[in-house]
Amino acid sequence: MLKLYYKFNFATEPNDYYDENSNFYQRAQPELIANKFYADPSKIKNLYHYTTYEAFEKILSSSTFLIGSIHYMNDDKEIKYVYELMKKELKLLEAPNDIILKLEELNTILPDDVYVWSFSENDYSQALSNYGDIALGFDSQGIMEQLASYYSKGKKTLDEYTVGNAYVFPVKVEYDYEVQSKYIKALAHAWLVAHDNFKYDPDDMEVIIGSIVQALHFFSLVFKNPYLRQEEEIRYIIFNINEDNLLKPELYMNSKPFTTCRLTHEMLKEVIINPKSQKNLNDVSTMLNREGFTRTSVNMSKLPY
Question: Cβ atoms within 10 A of the Cβ of 301, count?
Answer without folding.
Answer: 20
